Amino acid sequence: MRVSNRLVFVAALFVAAGSTQGHTLLLNPNGGEVLPVGSVFTVRWQVTGGNYNPLNWDLWYSQTGAGGPWTELAFDLPAGSGAIGSIHSYNWTVPSVVDDTMWVRVRMDNAGVDYLDVSDASFSIVVTPGTVITTHDILWRHEDGQTFVWLMDGTQLIAAGSPGSVGKVWQIAGVGDFDGDGNADILWRHQDSGQIVVWYINGTQFDGFGSVGGISLDWTVEGIANFDGLNGDDILWRHNSGQTYIWLMNGATVVGQGSPGSVGQVWQIEGVGDFDGDGNADILWQRVDTGQLVIWFIEGTVRVDSGLAGSADPNVWEIAGVGDFDGLASTPTSTADILWRRDNGQAVIWLMDGTLRIGQGSPGTVGQVWQVAGIGDLDGDSLSDILWRNQSPAGQVFVWFIEGTARVGHGSLGGVSHVWQIAGTDDFDGE
Question: Pairing relation of β-strands 70-77 and 185-190?
């Protein structure tokens, strides 16, 4: 088990910079609360003086005391009412920062003087017995064929190593936990023969392999996910004709297979994820000419339902990935959401519950020199984060930590030459 130690420090001298105590009262957490990691806690505060027109609200937490230093919790929250007595709230997914001396601060951001308040006493963040905090790691591939795994905790590289090297005729087709041991594995495909091989990985170490078999090159791997809720991850294929096919896997053995359907090539698979919270991955489609989205709900190899999920102009917006950014849903299991990227660099997240968009917002905008390189939970808060790579020669890698649609922190992982490419993000060490 690893506890995230991500700290994105924010300058603590807000009083000197035009902030002052008063006119805002933090209602909770206000001391004594015990918050389990991964739970959703409602932070509440009240306007107690003046009648303001706030620009927005900002929240932080501290592990040190009422004087900080502070870590971003949520920034630029909607202003709402500035009238005396008005109450505001934010649903906070409790991060994996286990400590019994936690504090929260709220700030009313005004055009003039800003007002803030801090918890009266400390509260605790705890790990519920049986809860394992895991983080996603980064798989790299060198142009000469070598692989390399970075084991991550937030922005901290805690270990690195190479599970091996193989000729460039072998391409990484995806990563996923095929044997159900809690560690992600690497799926390889031979570009001449179509042969499929799984490398089993334990941290940074090669832990054996298995040959899955071969399939002709007119079939393409479109996704790795658990479609039946059993064993480990499975493989989604698509034929040049438009037919889809799922291999249900147990290690390197195909234990079941079948086609959930076929659709013309005007429809493209944009991602896989559990959109309805039933524990089985589903398929996200987009029509390339209209931008229309459709979700196929899958159980095993069977399409049990489908539905329209909105649309976006494909000349302006593109889907950059699928992940669970909010951990919330109407079902006991959280659901997948959709990350979009606009042609001006803006990122937007659609929070989904089935085909229903239950929320949306932008965590920020960056120039097109930055490309989304992966989506995964890098800080262990059970929410997906966004991994960026700069296309300049330095190859800088950056992560945005996300809660819902808000960017609550960020950090640099350093620069890596573009002879190395990010081939996947997943949990390779089960920690």
Answer: unpaired
pTM of the model: 0.76
Select from 243, 221, 214 the least CA-distant residue to 176. 221
> What is the token pair recorded at 317?
């917006």
The beta-strand segments (E) located in 263-405 are: 267-273, 282-287, 292-299, 302-311, 317-323, 337-342, 346-353, 356-365, 370-376, 385-390, 396-403
395's torsion region: left (phi>0), alpha (psi -120 to 50) or beta?
left
Q: Alpha-carbon distance 317 to 235, whole Å?
A: 27
Pairing of strands 114-118, 19-21: parallel
The pLDDT, as a whole number, for residue 7 is 34
Residue 16 has a CB neighbour count (10 Å cut-off) of 8
Cβ neighbours for 84, distance < 8 A, ≥ 6 positions apart: 47, 48, 49, 50, 51
Question: Is the Cα torsion angle 118, 121, 122, 128 positive or negative in sign?
Answer: negative
Say what the pLDDT of residue 97 is. 73
Q: Which long-range contacts (CB under 8 A, 24 or more apart) does 239-247 make?
A: 240/265, 242/267, 244/269, 244/283, 245/219, 245/301, 246/298, 246/300, 246/301, 247/212
Query: For residues 396 and 406, is the Cβ–Cβ distance under 8 A?
Result: no
For the chain, first and last CA: distance in Å?
Answer: 5
According to the model, what pLDDT value does residue 358 have?
87
Query: What stretches of 98-169 adopt beta strand conformation (E)?
Result: 99-109, 114-118, 123-126, 137-142, 146-153, 156-165
In this prediction, residue 334 carries a pLDDT of 75
- Tell me the sheet residues that pair with 190: 170
CA 78 to chain centre: 23
Retrieve residue 150's tokens. 């970075």
CA distance 428 to 431: 8
Which one-letter amino acid corresponds to residue 127? V
Identify the three-state secondary structure at position 289. Answer: coil
Q: Which two tokens stand for residue 353?
A: 């519950």
Q: What pLDDT score does 333 carry?
A: 58
Residue at token pair 């932070």 = 43
| Paired strand residues for 174 | 187
**Six token digits for residue 112:** 């003039």
Count CB atoms within 10 A of the CB of residue 317: 17
Residue with tokens 């700069």: 390
| pLDDT < 50: residue spans in the chain | 1-18, 329-332
